[in-house]
Amino acid sequence: MAKEKKTLWQEFSKGIVKENPVLRLVLGTCATLAVSTAAGNAIGMGLATTFVLVCSNAVISLLRNVIPDRVRIPAYITIIAGFVTIVQMFIKAFSPQLDSALGIFLPLIVVNCIILGRAEMFANKNRILPSILDGLGMGIGFTATLLLMGIIRELLGAGTIFDIPVLSGFMDPIIIFILPPGGFFVFGMLIALANKLSGEGKAPEEMGCSGCPLAASCSKLKEKEAAKK
Amino acid sequence: MNAETIKSLVSIFLAAILTENYILNKFLGICPFLGVSKKLNTAVGMSVAVTAVMVISTAVTWPIYTYILTPAGLTYLQTIVFILIIAALVQLIEIILRKFIPSLYNALGIYLPLITTNCAVLGVTMLVIEKGAADPTFGYVQALVNAFGSGIGFLVAMVLFAGVRERLEFCDIPKSLRGLPITLVAASLVAVSFLGFSGLVDGLLGA
Predict the structure, then answer these.
(1) Is B127 within 8 Å of A104 when comparing Cβ atoms?
(2) Confidence (pTM)
(3) A107, A130, A162, B161: which has the fewest Cβ within 10 Å?
(4) What ipTM was estimated for this complex?
(5) What residues contact residue B161 under an 8 Å CB cut-off, 6+ apart?
C-alpha cells in the first residue's frame, strides 16, 4: 500500500519538474509563446488546459479498452474537442475579458500537443487514477511555466505584475519583451536554464518526428523504418 | 471584379505573408517550425503540404460554417466540427495522393499525418471566420486568398529560418544553450526582422 502511494505521488510530481511538459518535453510551444505576454492570461490559459487535460486523460483511460486501436487518434481528438468546447463556453460566460485576451488560442487547446501526447503516451496504457494524477501534474507544470514566463515578460515588457505597476519610475519597460521576439527569447533562456539546473548539462532531445506525439501512428514513418531494416 | 477588390485581395495576401506572419507574429505552427526547419528541402516540403491543407480546409470549412452551422445556431460546435473536417481531409488527401500521384506522395506524404494537429491549419480556418464576422466585405474569395497567403508566409519563415539554422551548425555554442535554446534565440532575432514589416502593406497600397 505504501509503495503504491509512492508511485501515485511520482505520477503526479514528475510533470511539475522532472518531465515538465514545456521545458523538458518541449510540448505545447505555440500556446506557451502566445499567451505568456501577461501573468493573468498565463494563469487562465494554464487552468483551462489543466482542466481539459485531466478530463480527457480520465475519459480516455476509461475507454482505453473500448476504442479500437486504428481509430484512436480521431476518437481522442473528438473527446478533447468536447472538453475544449465546455471550457470555451464556460470562459465566455464568466470571464469575457479573459476570452478576448486568449482569443484563438482557447479553441486551439484542441491541438495542444501536451494533451494528445499524454493521451497517447500515458492515458491509453494506464488506469484512471494514475491518468488523472498524470494529467494534473502535467497541467500544473504547464501552468507554472506559463506563469513564470508571463511574470518575466510582463515585468520587463510592461513594468507590471498582474496589472499592478511595479517598475514605474525605476526603469522604462522594454516593450520588445511583450512582442513576439521577446517570447522566443525568454523561452529559449528558460530552456537553457532548465538544462543547466538539471545538472546533466546534456542538450535537450532533438525535436522533429521523434518528439512528435503522433510519431507512433504515423504510417509513413513506420514504412521508412521498415525500409531501413 | 473591379480594381478595388483586386487591391484589397493583394493587400490581404501581402499582409498574411509579412505583417501577420503565422509563425513569427502569431505563434501558430511553432512545432514544425522548430522541428523540420533543420534542412532546406524538408522545410520546403512541409510548408508546401501545410499551404495545400490550409487552402483546402478553408475551402471546406468556410461554407460549412456559413451555410450549415450559422443558420442552425450551432456555432458553438465550431471547434469540434473544424478539427474533424481537417483530420478527415488530411486522411483523404493522403489516400488520393498515394493512389494517383505516388511521386508527390513520396515527397510530401511524410508530413501529412503531422499536419492534422498543426495549430496553424486549425488557426487559419478559425481566423478567417473571425475576420469575416468583423468585416462584411471579407467573403469566400478573401478567405481563400488569406489562407493561401498564410501558407506562403509559413513557407517564407521556414525557408529563412532553415538558412539561419544551417549557419548555426558551425558555431561554438555554450553547452546549456546547445540545441533548442539557441534555435529559439535565433528565432527571436528573425522575428525582430519581421517587426520591420509592420505598416508596410498599408503604406504600399495607400490604404
Answers:
(1) yes
(2) 0.84
(3) A162
(4) 0.84
(5) B33, B37, B43, B186, B187, B190
